[in-house]
Amino acid sequence: MPPEAAPPTAGLAGPDRAAPAIVLDGLVRRRGERVVLREVSVIVPAGATVALLGPNGAGKSTLLRVLAGLMRPMGGVCRVLGHELPDGRHDLRGRVGYLAHEPMLYRDLTVRENLAHRARLLRVADPAGRVRELLEATDLVRRADFPVHALSRGLTQRTTAAATLLSDPELLLLDEPLANLDPSASARLGALLGPRPAVPAPASPGAGPAARPARTRVIAGHDPEAALAESDIVVGLRDGAVTLLATPDTVGPDQIAALYA
Amino acid sequence: MSTPPAPRGAWTGDVRALLALEWRRERRAPQVLPTMVLFSIGVFVLFRFGLQDGRVDGPLAAGVLLVTTLLAALLGIGRLWAAEEDEGGLDAFRLTPASASALVAAKALALWSFLLVLHLVAVPAFAFLLLRDGLDVGALPTVAGALVLCDLGIAVTGALVGSIAAAARSRELLVPLMAVPLLIPLIALASEALSPVLTSPQDVVEGRWWTALALYDGVFLLVSWAVSDGIVED
Amino acid sequence: MPYARRILPLTAVTIAIVLAWIVVSAAVVPTDATEGVRQKLTYLHPAFAIITLIAFVAGAFFAWQHLKHDRPIDDLRSYVAIHQAQNFCLIALITGGIWGRAAWGVWWDWGEPVLVTFLIIFLLYATYQPMRFAIEDPERQARTASVFAVSAGIFAPVCFGVVRLTTNLLHPQPLDDPASNLPGTAGLAFGLSVLALGALFVTLWHLEIVHKSTRIRVRQLQRKVEGEDAVPVVARASSPVTL
């Protein structure tokens, strides 16, 4: 790919154009003989929120898995947080949080054990402290010692969200994150998984909170209104191809209808 | 292979955490160990009747003990990767910086430890139920040595076979199909190492069987390590 | 597609070697006084066994390449090598039985390490297709099959060593024994048999690779003409590769 051939960014004038979080150019992924993602090209600036829309089977979950480094791209360019996939996928580990449909939790273990184990493998600095912090943030303290199989779907979803946030990832890939949640849990989790600006390095060491990059988010879902409300970029997938790429203020209801038609 | 350099001791730390997880899950919901123990004792009783109230010694004794171990191990191998596959633990693992070989090593160590615990119960039961002259105390180190090496081979091969079978729909059917041929040479070697001490009067085990057993274990350790990325990666 | 271009010359070479082999073993090598024509079967079994073992190891090599570089063509190479080797393995077992009958009067002999090893290897590789086609995701299927092929390919020679160690070598191993008093022409016939079956294997391997990739290409074109959903996906196949 010639480096000058910049893929479209929906005209977004982000401050971080120089260091985009995600660069996709002609990304292809097949499943056997079938093409699941065909030539997907998108640039996502660091700190932006992408709403990923499309009917069932359009390739949303596959795209999220590719971005998480769980599936290899089979063609085109796929650069995530500055690392070329698939070769750089090991460097992404711990920097990307992926909230999938499946809970990805051990059902016989308790909420706390699941989180502590994951934190340990993610090499979180203070695993016990971080787990406690997230249990409080997700309002799971009272259920912390329940085995996962005894939890309702909503509570399981909250546990999964806590597990996703353990390493405080820079890139969040969320597959219908607020499914199965009641309104109060939905609001709480929505805030927890919400956007977060970058914190610049303090003037002198120890003078303030440590520097951290802005949080980039890709959210797949079926609720166009909610998605438009919280996103900076809207990507519509249909049969594995990008058919809609725009900023939310320019997306009309007819475009959404066409996507799902 | 393509895993980035990890902090020193991270690999062993990961293996320890993953092994602890296996044992914690087994303690929380005991499945594999009780099944293997009960199955083994059931098979010993079965042999008692199948051999018409006969007692065994020599190669026959070694064969009965080892084949029973292998069959019991098949039950454990089938369950070894089930949680990763059914509960999505594999995806969760792949999002962490821990290396694939650490997971495979932890699985093999878990199965090895299960098999060793199994033998703590099964060998006395075997000596009591089936062995013609009981087990001599002097023979214990040899029996233990042969079983430790045999169990290691079963564990490493089992971790590999279990991971292959876990990806498939018919997991329970594939495990015995693949594991039995792969373990025939191991059982043959372990039988050669065991049968002299199960004979009365006892015989001396030839050194080459120990070497061969250790070599077999070593080869499969290398294979598992080499293909571990292929097992865990997508 | 170089694979297709190589088929014609390969076939010609294979035919030439096979003819030479038949002529040498039928006309040049003296017929054994006691065994008669049956003795000529001696040249079949070891050759099949040798090619089978090499083919399984080659399958493991391609599978290793597949795991390392993630190219679907390597999966196809490994798949076809194993598939052909399975057929060769079966023939090695059958000719081995015939050989045993000719040499020692028994169809099966547990003291013969080559035969016993090939039975074990055959049992192991017989699970390759059931294992492979029980995995639904095609990419995972290919990768898991490669893990299996690498493990089994390393296992095959190890198994031979162990079986050889644990069986009592009661029978003469005429072709391994340098002091054997076989006539020199018999050695030539044996060498030719290995060469002929090796050439046959390579030709068949090319043929199946080209056949499989052509089938995929046809389906691709059919999809283009009739639409994406007109052609159902084949579930029982290697990685879809068009050369």
Automatic annotation (TrEMBL), chain A:
One GO MF term attached to the UniProt entry: ATP hydrolysis activity
Domain ABC transporter: 22-261
UniProt KW Ribonucleoprotein keyword: no
Nucleotide-binding as UniProt keyword: yes
Keywords: ATP-binding, Nucleotide-binding, Transport
Family under the similarity heading: Belongs to the ABC transporter superfamily.
Protein name as it appears in the record: Unannotated protein
Source species of the chain: freshwater metagenome
From TrEMBL, chain B:
Record bears the keyword NAD: no
Gene Ontology cellular component terms for the protein in this record: membrane
GO term, biological process aspect, one: cytochrome complex assembly
Membrane found in the keyword field: yes
GO-annotated molecular function: heme transmembrane transporter activity
Topological category with respect to the lipid bilayer: Multi-pass membrane protein
InterPro entries listed in its UniProt record: Cyt_c_biogenesis_CcmB
Compartments it resides in: Membrane
Residues annotated as transmembrane: 32-51, 63-82, 103-131, 143-166, 173-190, 210-232
UniProt keyword terms in alphabetical order: Membrane, Transmembrane, Transmembrane helix
Family note: Belongs to the CcmB/CycW/HelB family.
Name of the protein in its database record: Unannotated protein
Species per Swiss-Prot/TrEMBL record: freshwater metagenome
UniProtKB/TrEMBL annotation, chain C:
InterPro entries hit by this protein: Cyt_c_assembly, Cyt_c_biogenesis_CcmC, Cyt_c_biogenesis_CcsA/CcmC
Transmembrane annotation, as ranges: 7-28, 48-67, 88-108, 114-135, 147-166, 186-207
UniProt GO MF annotations: heme binding; heme transmembrane transporter activity
Localization of this protein: Membrane
Keyword Transport: no
Pfam families linked to this entry: Cytochrom_C_asm
Main location as per UniProt: membrane
GO BP of this protein: cytochrome complex assembly
Gene Ontology annotations for the cellular component aspect, listed alphabetically: plasma membrane
Keywords recorded for this protein, A-Z: Cytochrome c-type biogenesis, Membrane, Transmembrane, Transmembrane helix
Record membrane topology: Multi-pass membrane protein
UniProt domain Cytochrome c assembly protein: residue ranges: 12-171
Family: Belongs to the CcmC/CycZ/HelC family.
Protein name: Unannotated protein
Organism: freshwater metagenome
Native organism taxonomy: unclassified sequences, metagenomes, ecological metagenomes
